[in-house]
Amino acid sequence: MIPSIPAYGFSAKPATSDWGTSISSMLGVLDAEHVAGIHLVPPLAGPDPSDDLTAAEREALARMRHRGRTASAYSEMHRTAPQTVGYALLDSPAGLCAWMGEKLIAWSDHRLGPADDLPGALTRDQILDQVTLYWLTGTAASSARLYAESIDTVSRWITGASADPVHVPVGASVFPAEVPRTSRRWAARRYPDIRYWMEHDRGGHFPALEVPDLLVRDLRAFFRPLR
């Protein structure tokens, strides 16, 4: 079995919305009796307006605002015109490679690179593997639609707005080049049963590709006591 998010890769193209770490969280809300635990990379939660922020929390919010100002075109295009960009990406492998490759490079931990003379942590083969998966399965448009269907809700969670609490056991891995970078106390408001929390010194948005050893170690450490 090769698991993938609905509308991405080998999964079907559903007619209803769903997304990523939010899928795991909502499973914990809607069917807690059948969920042993969820591991999130990272948990999505934001500060309370009354928080006296730590230095690390201030830095995390500043980085999120910086990304919003300088690198949000990708997200906004998917959110506001997913079909427009989707048709273009389904028509051009070169366009798809440029569109995806830029984010695969930009969102990885550059301190781990350069890989294959690229500025990020991923090799050319890793990038081409991801792009080829989307091209062969024709999922560029369906995956773009998830932003239009979900991102407003997810953004409210990240900025600290209320969300349904998740009471199942939770493990979390937080990587330094990831944005947003949730603090444990922010996460604890939404996830009151945190059993495992690890903040790493390397890795970005794609830890399964960048630092698989760290991610596997976290998964084993969290789920082992739940077996």
Automatic annotation (TrEMBL):
This is Epoxide hydrolase. It comes from the Bacteria. Keywords: Hydrolase. Belongs to the peptidase S33 family. The keyword Membrane does not apply. InterPro entries: AB_hydrolase_fold (IPR029058). The keyword Transport does not apply.
